[in-house]
Structure formats: structure tokens, C-alpha cells
Design goal:
With 590 residues, the protein is of the alpha/beta class. It contains 20 helices and 16 strands. It has 3 domains: 252 residues, Response regulator (Rossmann fold, 3-Layer(aba) Sandwich); 34 residues, no CATH class; 149 residues, 3-Layer(bba) Sandwich (Glucose Oxidase, domain 1). The protein is 35% helix and 12% strand. The structure holds FE2/S2 (inorganic) cluster.
């Protein structure tokens, strides 16, 4: 354990560096005694441009109080904050930047452990990516979900209902006053989106990974329990520091198998496919796209939270949250995986006496037993075919069942600007397949969440609310519809999607895992030769991003940040091998 004298600034004389640090710490109030204590960095992603983190002041204070109570020294520090609706073109463009910031600040400053406080969609994966690479003892505290809104007796959740009401307004079914009244109730409290969007999904899967104290993910942002959880996390961070328990011992293939199983059981966001892949790779683990399909097919859906049900995260919390879910799912999980408590999931459940707590009667429609699941599988499907040689994904439980097998003519938009220009006048029918190109990692840039392509007015007027939609982009975890996402390779790097033209017949068969365009290979090749590459940015972060970003099935990380990945998801490396690989990653600068 290093304490405040650790990681000194280099002046060529370490003794002088420590002398200087002591002098420069006095005005911060540190006594000599403090230099003997474990130091816990508290990474605070508060920003006034991130509404989901508006309540982080008291939350971070509670973490720091916990650190002090356990005999540690808490040192709060800021990093980049990514507020989903406040970033152009997409928060995803900056996830890797945030991960780099977190990693380097964790590594460079004199911490013995770190508490990662985040919440809005991209923040948690970015922090875990950074912490996995820095490999300092770490645990996560999420900001927690908002409470649901209420519009004339109907409970509303951001942003599933944002999209639904906006579509009704576009269809002329509600007036501007109603839309404004709904708008007031969509995000009524502090916290992140309260449906099973990306923020909820990532908090829950990170708890399943073992990187959060049990029960933390679902506590509403404004519930007093969240402060108690934050304080307990501060205490736990000091224990982690003393034990030297690093992420490389927790973030194992087994932990990721648990996370993917929980992802399927909650019908979580498709964005988790990208984030979990990127996070795992930082720990040397290769998750293949087909692993998500395989685990999803064998895992029953046990929750009914929007957009695959009608409930909200506060209901899931009252039903028992992640410990209750994992305990019910235990036959498909590996309960002996280690967590930040220093104990296994199984031991955590015993400490919480989860087995003795039935789901309250009022919440039986929120959390099911595996014998009576809401659906037999998780609904996350991977597609292959000549339109997506490296794969694509679809969340079948958020789709229209009748469209899961569909053949129709493509209606192509070359990019978002083309979509915006032509959408209102385009001659579309419900049978058309909407295709949007150039919203992938490079083309977006940043793979924006534009994959839930708006239904053209000509179709809305016929009372139709869903069509098959295909893109190389992402969609919000709060969104829904028969939406094929993450088509790879993306159009901007020469993927076959770039060659699709309006009128080409497209075939989707989700059960068979097929996505094809009925065009001869030589015609596709000829069309691709005529395509133009997007211009390379002249400088700065966007140039770095353009040159190094990986495709969706590889997690959209930067190639130079991803270490060698010796293990597949299905491996079980012994502890000595985990330690040696972590040592090697550090030695190689990863
Ligand atoms: Fe932050 Fe939805 S806007 S989680």
C-alpha cells in the first residue's frame, strides 16, 4: 500500500519529491498521520452539463464519509462527464476519451483504491474500461435511476415514453399542449433514465460482474438507501485497498459470463453488447458477438421493465433488485465468482439472506422465477448474411413479432442529413425496409443512436408504428421497434451496407439469424468500388478516433488501447495466470 507518499513526481530525487509533497499537502489539511493511511480516489463525474449526475454532491460526500470512517483518506477528483442528451454528435464519440482520462488519472495519482462514481450511459463503461486497464483496486457507485413520471395516471419512463409520445405527435394523434404536459413528466427527478436503457443495463451488469456492492444498481437516485450504499462503498474501498484486490482478479471470463447472462435475463440494452465487449477486452478477454446470442438463447427473460415490459427500475428495486434476480437465475450463473466485497456472489447472497425473501406480491409481474419466465429467452439475437458479414444485432423482445421474418424493398438514406431532408416526403409503405447508412463508428462519427429511424409520415398516417429498420449505428436502450443495429463492417469502411440501393429486396429472419440483400455478389462489389470514403479529420481527438476506432463487434475501442486477449469468454484461467497476464499488460504499457 502506497499512501500519499506513493507515485511521486519525478525530480531525480525521490526523497526531495516526498519532502515537497508533504509541504504541498499541508494547506489541504493533511497531518503526518494521514500519510500513513490508505488513499482512496473518488472519481466524480459531476458536471452541470450532465443532468443525470446533478445529485452527485451528496452521493460523493457519502462515499468520502465511508472512506474516513474506515480509516482511509478520500481524495475526490474530476474526469470527463458524458451527459447523453447534451453531446453532439453522440456521447459515444467520447467514451474512449473518458476511458483514457480515467485510466491515466487513476494510474498517475497517489491512490491505493478508487471509487468510480458515474451513471449516464457511457460513463460507467468508460470508467470500468479505464479502471480495468489501470488495474488498481476499484469499485463502482452508480447514480441510480430516476423515479417514474405520471401523466394523467399513466406512469412514464425516459426515454421509452419520450419516443412513443413524440411518434404520436408526429402522427397527429396528440396536440402540442399534451406533448408539453408529457414533457414535464418524462424526467421528473434526479437520476439516470429509469427504464432498462443503457444506464440501467450497465449498472446492473457491472453489479453482476462483481464490481459493485450487492444491491447497488437499482436503488433509485433519490432514495435514502443510495446514500447508505455510497457510504458502505467508501468503507469497502478501504478494505479493497488493504487487501490489494485488483480488477484483474474480479473481471474474469467467469464474471463476464455472469454479466452476459444477467444482460439476457433483463432484456437489456443492445449498447451493452458494445460496452461489455470493450470492457472485457481491457482485461484480456475476447467476447465474440455470437457469445451474446448463445447466452441469450439459453437464458429466460425474468424482468419486465420498459421497453420490454411496462415497469420501471424503482419497481425492480422493490422486487429485490440484482441480488434477487441473480439468486433466481443462479442455476445459469457461476455464484462462486469473486466480487469487491472480497467474497463471492453466493456469500453475498447468504449475507443478505436473499433466499429468505420472496418477491413481494405487488412486484411479481416485475421479477419472475425461472420456472415461469416472461419469455423463454433473452431476445438478443445476432444476425449474419451478405449485408453484415461481421454480424449485426437485434433486440427481438422490443420488436413487432410479425416483422421478425420479413422480406421487403429497401428504402435507403445515405446518411442522417439525407434522412432529415427526405423523410417527410418519402413514398414509403409498411412493407419497405428502411436503411440508414453512415452512422457507424467511423461514419457517424461515434456510432450515434439514430438506428431507431423515424417512421415516415406516409406510413404513420396509416396507423403503422413499426417497420424493419437497418443501420450500422446504435439505438438507445430505451428505444424499441424491429431495429437491426451495429451492421458490420459499417458502410463508411466499405461494408456491403454501403452498396444497398432503394428497391433492392432485403430479407430478415431473426429466428434463423439471417440478414441478406438479394443482389448478386459481383453487383455489390461493383457498387462498392464507386463509393467514396469519408474525409479524414485534419487534427485532434477526431483524427485519433478516425484512425484507430474498432468496429462494433470489437467494442468500438481504440486498437492501441486494447491489449492482447488470450482468453475467450469460455476460458477459466487460474489465478496465477490472471496475475501473470495483468503483470504482462502493465509491463507492455497496456
Ligand atoms: Fe442519462 Fe438517459 S440521459 S441515462
Amino acid at each position: 500500500m502506497g499512501g500519499l507518499y506513493d507515485k511521486v513526481t519525478r525530480y531525480g530525487d525521490p526523497g526531495f519529491s516526498r519532502f515537497l509533497r508533504r509541504a504541498m499537502s499541508r494547506n489541504l489539511g493533511f497531518s503526518a498521520d494521514d500519510f500513513e493511511r490508505p488513499v482512496v480516489g473518488v472519481l466524480n463525474t459531476f458536471s452541470e452539463v450532465n443532468r443525470c449526475h446533478a445529485h452527485f454532491g451528496p452521493l460523493v460526500e457519502a462515499v468520502k464519509r465511508g472512506v474516513l470512517m474506515a480509516g482511509g483518506v478520500p481524495l475526490e477528483f474530476p474526469t470527463i462527464s458524458l451527459g447523453e442528451p447534451f453531446l453532439e454528435p453522440s456521447a459515444m464519440l467520447f467514451r474512449n476519451l473518458a476511458a483514457m482520462d480515467a485510466e491515466e488519472m487513476i494510474r498517475a495519482q497517489p491512490f491505493d483504491a478508487v471509487v468510480l462514481v458515474g451513471g449516464c450511459d457511457k460513463t460507467l463503461p468508460a470508467l470500468v474500461m479505464g479502471a480495468a486497464s489501470a488495474d488498481l483496486p476499484a469499485l463502482v457507485v452508480s447514480g441510480g435511476p430516476m423515479l417514474a413520471g405520471d401523466f394523467q395516471g399513466e406512469r412514464l419512463g425516459a426515454c421509452t415514453d419520450c419516443r412513443r409520445y413524440w411518434t404520436e405527435w408526429r402522427a397527429g394523434r396528440i396536440d402540442a399542449d399534451t406533448l408539453e404536459a408529457v414533457n414535464r413528466e418524462l424526467a421528473p427527478t434526479h437520476g439516470h433514465c429509469m427504464v432498462m436503457g443503457t444506464a440501467s443495463t450497465m449498472a446492473i451488469t457491472i453489479e453482476a460482474l462483481g464490481l459493485m456492492l450487492p444491491g447497488g444498481a437499482a436503488i433509485p437516485a433519490v432514495h435514502q438507501e443510495r446514500l447508505a450504499h455510497a457510504e458502505a462503498s467508501g468503507k469497502a474501498a478501504v478494505a479493497l485497498a488493504r487487501a490489494g484486490l485488483r480488477p484483474s482478479r474480479i473481471l474474469t471470463p467467469r464474471a463476464y459470463r455472469n454479466a452476459l447472462t444477467v444482460l439476457a435475463a433483463i432484456g437489456g440494452s443492445t449498447n451493452a453488447v458494445v460496452h461489455l465487449t470493450a470492457m472485457a477486452a481491457r482485461s484480456g478477454i475476447r467476447i465474440a458477438l455470437d457469445d451474446f446470442d448463445r447466452i441469450s438463447r439459453r437464458t429466460p427473460l425474468l424482468t419486465q421493465v420498459k421497453p420490454v415490459g411496462r415497469y420501471h427500475l424503482e419497481d425492480f428495486y422493490h422486487a429485490g433488485g440484482v441480488p434477487a434476480l441473480m439468486w433466481r437465475l443462479r442455476a445459469l450463473l457461476e455464484p462462486d465468482a469473486l466480487t469487491v466485497t472480497g467474497r463471492t456472489h453466493r456469500e453475498n447472497w447468504e449475507a443478505l439472506r436473499v433466499a429468505e425473501r420472496p418477491v413481494p406480491e405487488a412486484y411479481r409481474e416485475v421479477l419472475a422465477d425461472p420456472e415461469r419466465p416472461f419469455k423463454p429467452d433473452g431476445g438478443l439475437r445476432v444476425l449474419r448474411g451478405n449485408l453484415c458479414p461481421d454480424g449485426a444485432v437485434i433486440k427481438s423482445h422490443a420488436a413487432t413479432p410479425g416483422l421478425l421474418r420479413h422480406r421487403g424493398p429497401a428504402l435507403v438514406f445515405e446518411n442522417e442529413a439525407d434522412l432529415e431532408r427526405r423523410l417527410s416526403d418519402v413514398a414509403a409503405t409498411p412493407e419497405h425496409v428502411l436503411v440508414l447508412k453512415s452512422i457507424g463508428p467511423v461514419g457517424g462519427p461515434g456510432m450515434p443512436e439514430a438506428g431507431m429511424i423515424p417512421i415516415p409520415p406516409a406510413v404513420l398516417r396509416r396507423g403503422v408504428r413499426d417497420m424493419v429498420r437497418i443501420s450500422d449505428g446504435r439505438m438507445s436502450g430505451t428505444a424499441y421497434g424491429t431495429v437491426v443495429l451495429h451492421v458490420a463492417p459499417e458502410a463508411a469502411v466499405g461494408g456491403p451496407l454501403a452498396a444497398v440501393e432503394t428497391g433492392d429486396m432485403v430479407r430478415l429472419d431473426v429466428e434463423a439469424g439471417v440478414l441478406e440483400v438479394e443482389v448478386a455478389p459481383e453487383d455489390l462489389a461493383r457498387r462498392l468500388q464507386a463509393r467514396r470514403r469519408p474525409p479524414r479529420p485534419a487534427r485532434g481527438y477526431r483524427r485519433l478516433y478516425f484512425d484507430h476506432v474498432l468496429q462494433a463487434p470489437e467494442g468500438v475501442d481504440f486498437d492501441f488501447l486494447r491489449p492482447p486477449t488470450p482468453w475467450s469468454l469460455w476460458d477459466d484461467p487460474p489465478e496465477a495466470e490472471l496475475d501473470e497476464a495483468a503483470r504482462q499488460r502493465a509491463a507492455d504499457g497496456y
